[in-house]
Amino acid sequence: MASFTLHGIPVSRGIAIGRSHLLAPAAMDVKHYLIGETEVEAEVQRLQNAVAKVRTELQTIRSDLPKESPPELGAFVDVHLLILSDPMLAEMSLDIIRNRHYNAEWALVTQIDELSAQFDEIEDTYLRERKMDVLQVGERLLKVLTGTATRLPEVDSDGASFANIVVVAYDISPADMLQFRDRAFAGFVTDLGGQNSHTAIVARSLDIPAAVGMNHASKLIKQDDWIIIDGDAGVVIVDPAPMILKQYRELQAHQLRARRKLGKIKKTRAVTLDGTEISLLANIELPSDCASAMESGANGVGLFRSEFLFMGRIGPQHELPTEDEQFESYRQAVVAMKGRPVTIRTLDVGADKPLSAEEQTALNPALGLRAIRYCLAEPQLFLTQLRAILRASAFGTVKLLIPMLAHAFEIDQTLAIIEQAKQQLRDEGIGFDESIKIGAMIEIPAAALALPMFIKRMDFLSIGTNDLIQYTLAIDRVDHEVAHLYNPLHPAVLFLLSTVIAMGRKAGIPVSVCGEMAGDVKFTRLLLGMGLLEFSMHPAQLLAVKQEILNSDLDDLTLQTKKILRSTEPSAIAAAVSQMRATA
Ligand code: PEP
Ligand code: MG
């Protein structure tokens, strides 16, 4: 067969090479038939048995999870258990059997369709992607009802051969993903999924090359096809020509060698050739990520995306984490970082927490009641979080980071609520760091362009390049149709970035970058040349960035960067930036 290439969304870096193993989805086009009155109870029982069986299946997966597995995995199984217990799925399907006399499969699929339609209405991408969890639980139930066998490959060898298998699927449930860890597959490709999909999150935490959102990959790829996944580019090459395969094998070996080599600089301080020390910080999503942050030698946590503690709180009650629960999570992170600073960003969610489809009013959630806007509209929830963060500050160095600020009054209101939280704790005799540093994310162009407003009021700044680029270039960062317009090297983006870094330095206020740009070695030297001294990134990227820093000369980079910033021609900028890497 002729070779062909598919393009999707890169979610986990690295190269995987192997033969494809296709996972057939459980068919949703089940048999539809009406049952007689006397058969209703038996049909109800059949569905109830399936629910019980799936519950046992999921509970077994949950309890068999090894201790060292990423915490997200357990949380995902919990979400599936919650969905299974949700009356909206099982109870409503049982009602359909009783009232409409549909057979169990038909009733279930009808109810799943109804729930899917409700999820489609949700604006928030993260929540909308949770529709997949409902479908996955539905699939599991259908498989039990229809007696479909387990779908994962059964290679009965010592397990080594899994390393040559790339799993290709329409979608993979988090529960099935667990078997990736056990069986060490080479990588995976799915038709569905986005940056925030569970499968993507799990792939990153397992460090397995993966590409998702490949549309029809599972139909185009045949069983046992040779496949290359370029996880960095989100590209899948099917049946590659021998020359291409050879090139990728070399690249893969090179990447492996480079990774091993990097391990040697774990304990080395990130100092440039001219002696400037750079602070390398970790971005984390859960307190347990602190282990990899410490392991990578991070100087602290530059971004704790606290919203991950609130996510997965899907379910009938929509119970958000309490102050105590949050405090415990923040404290855990602070203790795990052993005295290194932990920058906790306050809740960055959309208008749709706690998630209810009816509450969806935002036409454009990226421009809607997001992050600090949401928190200021929900002061009680905000106060609870602030109290929890402040309480954790008694256990180490905590910094407070506020997302999406654009207006002076937002800063002032935020500072007032922080003061209110402090006062409450004082009154209650609860300890916290009185001089806790408070910083702003600079991720809206207006904030970057009106920086003195922030410098006057804040202790530090952190540039969120992901959003800064989204808002500067007016492209939705989760919309794949405009993904090609997402360009960190656009002259407008570079202007904003360099201006914020320069103005911050001039005013003597610390500035870091915590968006994806900070962890991308292609941009390390450019950012150094702009005068950036603090980089915050996923721990897995930290050593490669450090390597760049160790070989950089700031004087030289500053000159080169000045030239780049004068250029208005995108192709010239791109060429000059890659030249920086080649020569510095
Ligand atoms: C950013 O916008 O660059 C950022 C770091 O925040 P998030 O990606 O969580 O929006
Ligand atoms: Mg952001």
TrEMBL record:
Residues that coordinate or bind Mg(2+): 443, 467
Lineage top rank: taxon: Bacteria
Active site, UniProt feature: 198 (tele-phosphohistidine intermediate), 514 (proton donor)
Locations listed in the record: Cytoplasm
GO biological process: phosphoenolpyruvate-dependent sugar phosphotransferase system
Enzyme class: transferase
Pfam family, one: PEP-utilizers
Domain PEP-utilising enzyme mobile: 165-234
Coiled coil: 37-64
Cofactor annotation: Mg(2+)
InterPro entries documented for this protein: PEP-util_enz_mobile_dom, PEP-utilizing_PTS_enzyme, PEP_util_AS, PEP_util_C, PEP_util_CS, Phosphohistidine_dom_sf, PTS_EI, PTS_EI-like
Catalyzed reactions: L-histidyl-[protein] + phosphoenolpyruvate = N(pros)-phospho-L-histidyl-[protein] + pyruvate
EC annotation from Swiss-Prot or TrEMBL: 2.7.3.9
Residues bound to phosphoenolpyruvate: 305, 345, 466-467, 477
Ranges for domain PEP-utilising enzyme C-terminal: 261-552
One GO CC term on file: cytoplasm
Phosphotransferase system enzyme I N-terminal domain boundaries: 7-130
UniProt keyword terms in alphabetical order: Coiled coil, Cytoplasm, Kinase, Magnesium, Metal-binding, Phosphotransferase system, Pyruvate, Sugar transport, Transferase, Transport
Family membership noted in the UniProt record: Belongs to the PEP-utilizing enzyme family.
Role: General (non sugar-specific) component of the phosphoenolpyruvate-dependent sugar phosphotransferase system (sugar PTS). This major carbohydrate active-transport system catalyzes the phosphorylation of incoming sugar substrates concomitantly with their translocation across the cell membrane. Enzyme I transfers the phosphoryl group from phosphoenolpyruvate (PEP) to the phosphoryl carrier protein (HPr).
Name of protein: Phosphoenolpyruvate-protein phosphotransferase
Organism name: Collimonas arenae
Upper lineage: Bacteria, Pseudomonadati, Pseudomonadota, Betaproteobacteria, Burkholderiales
Gene that encodes it: ptsP
